[in-house]
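Write out this protein's structure.
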Amino acid sequence: MGEVVAKVVSAGGGSVRLSYNLGRQDAERVAWELGNETRAVRLDVTNATDTEIAAVNNGFDATHVYYFGSPRISFDQSPNFNDVQFAEYSRFYVTGLVRLVRVLRSRDGAKMKVFFPSTSFIDAPVPGALEYIAAKAAGEAACRALALEPNAEFLVHRLPQLTTDQTMNILEVQGTDPVPLMLEVVQAMNVIQAHCP
C-alpha cells in the first residue's frame, strides 16, 4: 500500500519520503522510479530512538504521514489468546504510531495529517484474527487520543481485505485492489477533518 500511496502523491505533485524497515530494494526502486528528491530511509518504528525518527524528516518537513508500519501478519487458529502476537502487533499499531506522531508532528502550529489503516475485521471478525483485531482497535483508540493533542489530525479507515504482498499469504480469497482505495485516501487526506471511528 505504501508504494501505491507514494506513486499517487508523487503523481499529484507532492514530495515523497519513503520509510521502510524491511524491503530496502523495493523502497529504493520506488524512490528511483519517482525521481525528483524522493528518498527511501530505513526506519524501524519499534526500535528507533526519537533522534532516528526525527532524522527521517530532516530537510523534508512532512505535512502528511501515511502510517503503514506492520509486523508480518498471521492468523492463529488456536483457541488461546496469543499474548506474544498481540504485543508484537501493538508495538507497531500503538507504540510505534504514538512515538512517530509525537516526534514528527509540526512544532510551528501547522497540523500534520496522519492516515492510520485499520481493518474491517473489527466490524466483521474472521477466525484466528483476534490478536490482530484487538491491536488495530487499540491503534484506533490511540489515534482518537492523539487527536486531542496539538498539531495532528487523523484519518482512520477500516480497510477491507486488500491484495497486498503481506495478505497474499493469509487470505484464502482474493482481496480488493488497493489502488482505487488508496487514491480515495490520498484525496481525503487533503480535505481531512479529524475522523476516527
